[in-house]
Amino acid sequence: xxxxxxxxxxxxxxxxxxxxxxxxxxxxxxxxxxxxxxxxxxxxxxxxxxxxxxxxxxxxxxxxxxxxxxxxxxxxxxxxxxxxxxxxxxxxxxxxxxxxxxxxxxxxxxxxxxxxxxxxxxxxxxxxxxxxxxxxxxxxxxxxxxxxxxxxxxxxxxxxxxxxxxxxxxxxxxxxxxxxxxxxxxxxxxxxxxxxxxxxxxxxxxxxxxxxxxxxxxxxxxxxxxxxxxxxxxxxxxxxxxxxxxxxxxxxxxxxxxxxxxxxxxxxxxxxxxxxxxxxxxxxxxxxxxxxxxxxxxxxxxx
Length: 303
Fold this sequence. Notes:
By secondary structure, this protein is mostly helical. Among the domains are: 4-44, no CATH class; 70-237, Serine Threonine Protein Phosphatase 5, Tetratricopeptide repeat (Alpha Horseshoe), CATH 1.25.40. Helices cover 38% and strands 8% of the residues. It has helices at residues 19-28, 46-49, 70-77, 80-88, 93-100, 127-133, 137-146, 165-175, 182-199, 216-220, 229-237, 258-266, 295-302; strands at residues 4-5, 11-12, 105-111, 117-123, 155-158, 161-163. The strands form 3 sheets. Strands 1-2 form a two-stranded antiparallel ribbon. Helix 6 (127-133) runs antiparallel to helix 7, helix 6 (127-133) packs parallel to helix 8 and helix 8 packs antiparallel against helix 9. The radius of gyration is 34 Å and the shape is elongated. It starts with a strand and ends with a helix. The model is unreliable at 1-15, 44-55, 261-267 and 299-303 (pLDDT under 50).
């Protein structure tokens, strides 16, 4: 039979497996047990060995995730005016580069069956990749025209998901399939893709573009830039600006219950005084305002 754990953290077996064999088995798993007591027995920390069946994991050493940078939140929401106001406050180009390429640092915790955890630190998406993923054409064009938002920077927004700006727009286009206003959203994503295809030849992959978090991005100051700034801006200018007002998401049509539909129909005909017109009145007036000739109100007068 297989060895088992006792409730008190002791180790036992209902077979002839010796403690030494069990100790060697656990040591081979890398649990870091000591060499045992003088009597040949040994103790271990059940919190570490127990894994999913134990008493939990110690993650006190894992740093809290950073807050999403303000410019990324604005890019996600599609607020171009607020982004411009934020950028206008910063006059030094080095600081603008830090702003345009900002991303959240977050930690993925991998819980091992042995009871230990393994951590992976990631960069989330930049403002440009975020705007591309959500189809905000005007923000994508603005960030590209500035020439300091690097589209080659990769990020990991969630476990096992990795995007740079070029792949982020592709992911957004896939999500449109499930949208009730698919046609309108597709226009936005296709426009984003045209803009990105136009500037792609002018950007080389940054050496620090990987999704794993590193301080190198900030310490280097995001020096990557277009190989031909003027040429890139001319390429962007050749992409016509769409009428963004016509691309706004339409309000979904609301279906009214039958009783509300009837009320809406009856309120179409109104008396000049503001009251609802009397049903059957050929003058579309209420009983007080109708001057005739009207069969409805003549009958009322004869009563």
